[in-house]
Amino acid sequence: MGYPVTHSLSPLMHTFAFQHYDLDSLYVPFPVAPEHLAAAVVGALALGIYGFNVTIPHKETIMAHVDEMSAEARFIGAVNTVQIRDGRAIGHNTDGEGFLQPLRALSLTFTETLVCLLGAGGAARAIAMALLQSECPALVIVNRTYERGQRLVTVLQKHFPHAEIRAVPYEQAADVARGSTLIVNATSVGLHREDAVLLPDTCFRAGQIVYDIVYRPLDTPLLQAARRRGAKVVSGLDMLIGQGAEAFHLWTDLAFPVEAIRRVLEPFLHDVS
Ligand code: ATR
């Protein structure tokens, strides 16, 4: 449910997974106007469906209409997945877990990972929480609006008192990135061709992982530069599939066929300008 819900890759992804398991199920995009959200949730409960995803503009307002919320959704202050169990609607946020899945696939040792996180919006919040829950020892938030970065740090420090968490001004991004083993772009920079380059090439080296949550285009300038310099790269498509996998698991208890889904989605992202 979103408003609008055009251009979503989720119907493709989930319907493919249903077919993979030979389940007689569908994933359908519903444009739900804000004033109809409450009725839509009641309707979903009445229909007895597995659940649904929620996207803009409903991610926050949906919280008033679910019966329960996961700890992640409560911390992030947003729900992107609703699971219906025994006639109750449970709100989850799968962004953090979705973010981690590709890193787990790379066998990353989280307890030795020094993180440089660019951004302090909703996505950055989910990512920071996921990384700190995975016991990353140090996380530096670099945000264009320094004060917003600082505010996020204050909240994180309360929840994770043992981690070294700090915010630095945007001008220090390159220095912080050079000293990190995982660099994450959780800003919207890269979505447009004309966007400024986030970090100079000299920030990247072999042994680092550079992760961009932007998936349109699939290969952002940041990932291209990191790859050229020998770093491992993880794309926003990996996170998109990861959060879908987590939602699918909540609804069906089944695992996403990740590699097959990547092959299905990639052609839809290659030609985007
Ligand atoms: P989301 O919920 O997707 O994270 P958001 O809350 O709007 O979206 O956050 C967008 C993030 O991208 C913010 O960290 C924003 O920085 P500000 O807090 O300074 O606004 C960052 N961002 C957006 N455009 C940017 C740009 N041109 N340069 C640097 N950072 C940018």
Question: How would you describe this structure in keywords?
Answer:
273 residues, six-stranded parallel β-sheet, four-stranded mixed β-sheet, 10 helices
Quick recap:
The protein is an alpha/beta fold and 273 residues long. It contains ten helices and ten strands. The two termini are 26 Å apart.
Ligands, ions, cofactors: 2'-monophosphoadenosine-5'-diphosphate
Strand order of the largest sheet: 7-6-5-8-9-10
- Biggest β-sheet description: 6 strands, parallel
Q: Roughly how much helix do the residues carry, as a percent range?
A: 25-40%
Cα distance, first to last residue? 26 Å
Number of helices: 10
Given the C-alpha coordinates, what overall shape results? Answer: globular
Q: Which spans have pLDDT < 50 for at least 5 consecutive residues?
A: none
Determine the structural class based on helices, strands and strand pairing. Answer: alpha/beta
Q: What fraction strand?
A: 15-25%
What integer value in Å does the Rg equal? 19 Å
SSE order in H/E notation?
HHEEHEEHEHEHEHEEHEHH
Tally the beta strands.
Answer: 10
Task: Give the overall pLDDT as a whole number.
Answer: 95
